[in-house]
UniProtKB/TrEMBL annotation:
InterPro entries: ACP, ACP-like_sf, ACP_chloroplastic, PP-bd_ACP. Pfam families: PP-binding. HAMAP family: Acyl_carrier (MF_01217). It comes from the Eukaryota. The keyword DNA-binding does not apply. Residues 56-131 form the Carrier domain. Keywords: Fatty acid biosynthesis, Fatty acid metabolism, Lipid biosynthesis, Lipid metabolism, Phosphopantetheine, Phosphoprotein. This is Acyl carrier protein. The keyword Protein transport does not apply. Belongs to the acyl carrier protein (ACP) family.
């Protein structure tokens, strides 16, 4: 997962300033654009998400653990965007998935972080973040 407190991005002749409105997760942002004519354009609050994609091998391991835990058939499509709830996971399954991830990757996931995981990609991103801190 990624968080941005303030950043400037340039697109040829346009500059974009991103300011975070929420501390824990960037879900709302205020965007201000300035072009060559020095006119500033302010857009309404937009919803978007910035993520740092985990390594493909991390996502694959998470997919394998989710498949095993939920006893999903091989022909069931499971990818980074797959939501645990859509795959049939209840709260106990999710706890067991997190425990499997902790064991596989040698990490410890805090309860608050574990409760925020709802997709394979979110789990993989959290794993990458925790491994980076090790």
């Amino acid at each position: 997962m990624a968080s941005v407190t303030a950043s400037s991005v340039k697109f040829s002749s346009v500059s974009c300033l991103i300011k975070q409105n929420q501390v824990s997760n960037l879900k709302k942002a205020s965007l201000s654009f300035t072009g060559n004519g020095s006119q500033s354009r302010r857009l309404p609050v937009l919803r978007f998400r910035i993520t740092c994609a985990a390594k493909p091998e991390t996502v694959k391991k998470v997919v394998d653990i989710v498949r095993k835990q939920l006893a999903l058939p091989e022909d069931r499509d499971v990818c980074g965007e797959s939501k645990f709830s859509v795959l049939g996971a209840d709260s106990l399954d999710t706890v067991e998935i997190v425990m499997g991830l902790e064991e596989e990757f040698g990490i410890c996931v805090e309860e608050e972080s574990a409760q925020s995981i709802s997709t394979v990609q979110e789990a993989a991103d959290l794993i990458e973040e925790l491994l980076e801190k090790k």
